[in-house]
Amino acid sequence: METRYVEDETRREWGDKLFFYTDGLIENMNEQEQCWNQRNLRTFLKQHASDSASMLTGKLVQNIQEFYGSHPMNDDVNLLCVELNPDAVGGQIY
């Protein structure tokens, strides 16, 4: 099966966040065989949209740990949240 990628452009503003994650975040199962799915992720991100990137990430990790409990994960979980900050790049978006 050939993977198809779509290229797109979108305008970002200061304070916007970009959130990247691996499939393990939404595909691992807890003890009740439930996934922390994309709907849960979208809801969480909307509820915490005003949080800083570091605060959002910390709360998300805590939420995921509570959801999975002591049940071992079968897939790795990686996430990255980047917030566009004018002070960090001299006031220009590249």
What do you see in this structure?
- The chain has helices at about 25, 40-45, 55-70, and strands spanning about 15-20, 80-85.
- The chain is an alpha+beta fold and about 90 residues long.
- A two-stranded antiparallel ribbon has the order 1-2.
- The longest helix has 16 residues, at about 55-70.
- The model has no long low-confidence stretch (mean pLDDT about 90).
What is the number of E strands? 2
Total count of helical runs of at least 4 residues: 3
Side-by-side strand order of the widest sheet = 1-2
Mean pLDDT: 88
What overall geometry do the principal axes of the alpha carbons give?
Answer: globular
- The N- and C-terminal alpha carbons lie at a distance of 35 Å
Largest sheet: 2 strands, antiparallel
Strand content: 5-15%
Q: How much helix is in the residues?
A: 25-40%
Class derived from helix and strand content: alpha+beta
Element-by-element helix/strand order:
EHHHE
Rg over CA atoms, rounded to whole Å, is 16 Å
Which spans have pLDDT < 50 for at least 5 consecutive residues? none
